[in-house]
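Late entry, written up from scratch paper. The run itself happened at the end of the previous shift, but nothing got recorded in the book at the time, so transcribing now.
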Amino acid sequence: MTSAQYCNSSINLLSVNRLRSNVAKLVHVEIDEISQLHDSFENTLKEVASIIEKPKSRYPAQVRNFLEDITSQCDNLLDRLGLPKGAGVAGRWRKACLILDIGIVSYCGAHIERFDHQFLGEDLDLAKITAAWTYVTDGSEGIMLRRRSLRCLDGFLSSYKVWVLQSQLLWEDNAPLYLSTTIEEFSDIWGPVWAIRKTEDSNTILKYDAGPGSILSWPVEAVTPKLEENELFCHWVALDEKETKQPVALRQGMKLLIGAATEIEKK
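Output as recorded:
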């Protein structure tokens, strides 16, 4: 992807944390992280293979350190995505690797392309559940890949659903999702985006123009999920919708929770 200039140094994945089950989050993942995990697996396998070839061999502490390093990297990824890890080490490794495999494919299609039809010849959205590929039989909570709608951003995406990673315990949830993201991650996957400032040299951002509409801060609604630290509630407003007065100015680098009600003026 980097050699084809499809991405620079990172990708992002969409995930839903069971503790915030109505919010999809765009999670930043560095290409170097993926390469490091690959190298860790490869180096560990080489070390184990060299030991096995020796008579009466025993696993030294170095191999244990290799294994703990792999586990730490896998756990870090699953924690950032807000996805269940499970107790078994091998199961956590498998989950992390499968998430990266399918997540890269999803990223290449901007998280909306039907790669299941195009490359697998299957409908992975059948019966609400795409596939519990990361389910492990140690009794831990599995992870599924599903296609879900976004709330106000449904208009921005022309009603395309997005692929999200989520706990298998959320398999019945079909409500449109809010999106938690930074504008940088949003622009990376669905850009370009233009910051509209109060003046040319101002740090105050009035809105971001994105597609046939704009992202701007919005008054919190009764059903709005609890905002995280440094997260601002926002709405994507289509060009033919009326913009309301913004309660808070936008700032570069802040997290946005996009998903206000699509019915702007209630009469």
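The longest strand covers residues 23-30.
(Scratch paper discarded after transcription.)
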